[in-house]
Amino acid sequence: MDLTTSYLGLKLKNPIIVSSSPLTASAEKAQALEAAGVAAVVVNSIFEEQIRDETSQMDEALAADGSSEAYDYLRANIAMRLGPEKYIDDIRAIKETTSIPVIASINCISADNWVSFARKIEAAGADALELNLYDIPQDPNETSNAVEERHLKLVSAIRAEIDLPIAVKLSPYYTNLLNFAHRLDKIGINGIVMFNRFLQPDIDIESETLRHAANLSREQDLRLPLRWVAILRNHLRCDIAINSGIHNAEGVIKGMLAGANVAYLCSALYHNRDHAALINGIINNISGWMQRKNYPNLAAFHSKMCELSTDSCKGFERAHYVKILTSQK
Ligand SMILES: Cc1cc2nc3c(=O)[nH]c(=O)nc-3n(C[C@H](O)[C@H](O)[C@H](O)COP(=O)(O)O)c2cc1C
């Protein structure tokens, strides 16, 4: 079976990409993932605070929090990656020691610090850049429109600055995701990643302190991105990466039927540390399914179940909600 595909204009041997996380934070880790069979990696994000040279404050705040998972999430290997130069070195090292496409990732909420840094990432040899719009607005006076405008301004500024393909990684928390994604698409980005999973702090009721744990997904979490990929597919020109809840071949196939070009994995690789066995199993099971269905390549079933292709039409939108609720006893 032919599992080759393309994403952001990059040729991929299969649709499996490891998403930005500590799993991709060094050349050694990227090499191991390449050997395990993944088609590309998105490097651990560099955070805006690192660019603003606020690493020491952030480091202290996280250390005081005492939670290794929170630490991991926000700044993998913090001691190793103080500052932007280290990030550029990492990108260069990953590029030099692997032959799969390497996508750099920056977590940004404002345009001020990122534009020139994006140029450095391009010069370091990254194949593409992912903008991780991880943002929890804090100002009660900032309207949703202002938040979106801020994000669009940032993406436009970086688009104008570099020639690299750009993907934008979104959260699902937009009032009208379709409108926002559409406006992003018009800027000329090359891909949208749906969705990031935010760190969700918990409360320890004995110590009455915050407890942070990595917010690993489960298989059923796939339904949220699945719906949105299916709804957005035919409204966008750019590629779509499905992310959140991809744990097996079935998840990848569902994502592609809905209209995703590739599938990003993260939690599955934390749950199963035998990465080669996991990736091999996924690839073999996709091939087996394609063989049974007589699909010679991914294009043969891509987008088959996206919103405007389903017989029921609007199956991913509201109509089925009513049907399901009224059929529940
Ligand atoms: C420990 C950990 C660290 C992460 N770090 C980043 C990061 O630096 N940048 C980013 O865009 N996403 C980060 N993520 C989010 C993942 O890339 C991914 O979008 C999310 O976990 C959903 O995919 P999954 O269901 O396969 O886990 C992190 C996730 C985890 C669990």
CATH-assigned fold name: TIM Barrel
Could you give me the name of the CATH homologous superfamily?
Aldolase class I
Helix content: 40-55%
Strand adjacency order, main sheet: 3-4-6-7-8-9-12-13
The total number of structural domains is: 1
Provide a descriptive summary of the structure in words.
It is a single chain. The chain has 329 residues and is of the alpha/beta class. It has one domain (5-327): Aldolase class I (TIM Barrel, Alpha-Beta Barrel), CATH 3.20.20. It is built from 13 helices and 13 strands. It has helices spanning 27-36, 48-51, 55-65, 68-74, 84-97, 114-123, 144-161, 177-187, 223-232, 249-258, 267-271, 275-293, 319-327, and strands at 5-7, 10-12, 16-18, 40-42, 46-47, 102-107, 128-132, 166-170, 191-194, 202-204, 209-211, 239-242, 262-265. The strands form three sheets. Strands 3-4-6-7-8-9-12-13 form an eight-stranded parallel β-barrel, surrounded by six helices. Helix 1 (27-36) runs parallel beside helix 5. The longest helix is centred in the last third of the chain and has 19 residues, at 275-293. Mean pLDDT is 87; it is low at 73-82. The site of flavin mononucleotide has 24 residues, from helix 4 and helix 11.
Task: Give the topology.
Blueprint: E1 5-7, E2 10-12, E3 16-18, H1 27-36, E4 40-42, E5 46-47, H2 48-51, H3 55-65, H4 68-74, H5 84-97, E6 102-107, H6 114-123, E7 128-132, H7 144-161, E8 166-170, H8 177-187, E9 191-194, E10 202-204, E11 209-211, H9 223-232, E12 239-242, H10 249-258, E13 262-265, H11 267-271, H12 275-293, H13 319-327
Parallel strand pairs: 3-4, 3-13, 4-6, 5-6, 6-7, 7-8, 8-9, 9-12, 12-13
Antiparallel strand pairs: 1-2, 10-11
The site of flavin mononucleotide has 24 residues, from helix 4 and helix 11.
